[in-house]
Description:
2 domains, CATH 3.30.1330, 8 helices, alpha/beta, single chain, four-stranded mixed sheet
Amino acid sequence: xxxxxxxxxxxxxxxxxxxxxxxxxxxxxxxxxxxxxxxxxxxxxxxxxxxxxxxxxxxxxxxxxxxxxxxxxxxxxxxxxxxxxxxxxxxxxxxxxxxxxxxxxxxxxxxxxxxxxxxxxxxxxxxxxxxxxxxxxxxxxxxxxxxxxxxxxxxxxxxxxxxxxxxxxxxxxxxxxxxxxxxxxxxxxxxxxxxxxxxxxxxxxxxxxxxxxxxxxxxxxxxxxxxxxxxxxxxxxxxxxxxxxxxxxxxxxxxxxxxxxx
Length: 262
């Protein structure tokens, strides 16, 4: 529930920074409304957006953790069902063919990673459909290189235009393979806004892409302006010598995610 009620302080600070940097009066008004909306949502404990999203859950399971009493997937699913019911959150999950709503926003999308230690970290990231629809994976030839990577990211944002509810956050997954590049891109969205990659080359590329995206002029709410994106985050992984996967996962301005460690 809290993931839909409260924006992280990093996102709120990014809104305030965007308000200072935006030169368009209309864009400034959009940022003021976003700040007001976030404040009302937190005070009234109401969803900040009518699209309460797919429940995407990242589990970091310590290899020494002892989980008893049933399957962890069942427990996560039960938690999602309870959270969306108790929080009066819109339930958006449906059968892909019949479009019949599952009625409880389940099943969630769960990504599990084994890590050192005996703790369990649960990160829930409600992901709206509008921004997810604007995301993509490109399987580039290795010869495309860095220019090809930049072109994929910039063109994806350009083609998305106002559809993902800018100002946006752009997660980029580089390398791995088809499916892992997409997971990397989504995982990149979990990083705090303003926190650069610990790898200097990636941090420089993030800054360059952010600058190029904000030169597109799409602006807040797609109404024109200087601030189209609040941040760009890149995660990468080695890939096959014959492949160059690049995934772009766009998040709307409601960059929601909450974590707990058990």
